[in-house]
User: Fold this.
Amino acid sequence: MVLSTVESEFFMRRAIELAKRGNGNTHPNPMVGALIVENGKIVAEGFHARAGTPHAERNALAALGRAPAPGATMFVTLEPCSTCGRTGACTDALISAGISRVVVGATDPNPAHAGNGFTTLRNAGIEVVSGVLEEECSRLNPIFNYQITTGMPLFAMKTAMTLDGRTATRHGESQWITGAEARSDVMRLRRYFPAIATGSGTVLADNPSLTARIPGENVFCPVRFVFDRSLRTLEKLDLLNVFNDEFREKTVLVTTAEVPSVLSEKLFVRGVKIWKISAENFWADFRSRVTEKKLAGVLFEAGAKLLGALLSEKQANYLYAYIAPKIFGDPDARPVFAGTPLEKLSESQILSRTAVSRHGNDFLFEGKIGV
Assistant:
């Protein structure tokens, strides 16, 4: 049965929904969703739940529990793997099962796969259609896409701003720039990223917990980096959530200064770690430390100074900008970024593979930083 473009996109959107069920649990693997269609109806579904467990395609086949009917089609958000990892090549499973047609969203950026899965399936006589909702499927996995091609963790920035690029009034009032729906979506990002970073100014001003609080799920706490080169936060050590809550052992104080022994002991008792990073090679050394700890990505939820430094040093790889339909019109309201002065328009950083989605009255603009 040949499906129309509308029908193919309908089934792929369902596969995308399935993939999102693995949010935050699949690192270093990607989130992937799959489903089997027979005679225009979904008969089985699956998704990749956790690294080391069966992939989405195998889960969909297991859910079917029988041989696929003649002409059965599998929809999958990412090219089926063609190499034998911990769970075996998915191309082998599809060939053995007798699937007639495979419709794929995004090509696997992993150089070990990248198109080889398509070739393997076609050589086995399976019809392959690729590129259905390709951009949407690719955006499921910005961390995997970056890490598998560079070997380094993804550094992403998250902001919430007005239409004129302000994050707070001149007096610091910022709650809330965006509405409840956008703030709820931020919880999705916090659950996706294995680490979150912020600056001392944000910790002192807002006393955030930096946890993912999703209805129906246990509170999730990623690794929390607090950038504090001058050790300002240690003056209020006993009052700040990240140093005292139940997840305090997941907090890391990032600094370049010598930590006084008394404060160092207090942090040690709490379980808080200290990273002393070279001032000369700060970002390279920090990224190297993150890589050593096998943290696939870091979400920077910070103020203008830290985000500006990321941009100025060309360390930011991705942007999530929640934009509220509000205008301050005040030149002294607090900006999103405060980096080094820009001399020429040509020096601006360009985003590629951009997308816009709506969350209540607010909009999420996202994209890869750099072409």
About this structure: Residues 73 and 101 are 5 Å apart (CA to CA). The two ends are 39 Å apart (CA to CA). The chain has a mean pLDDT of 92. The longest strand covers residues 351-359.
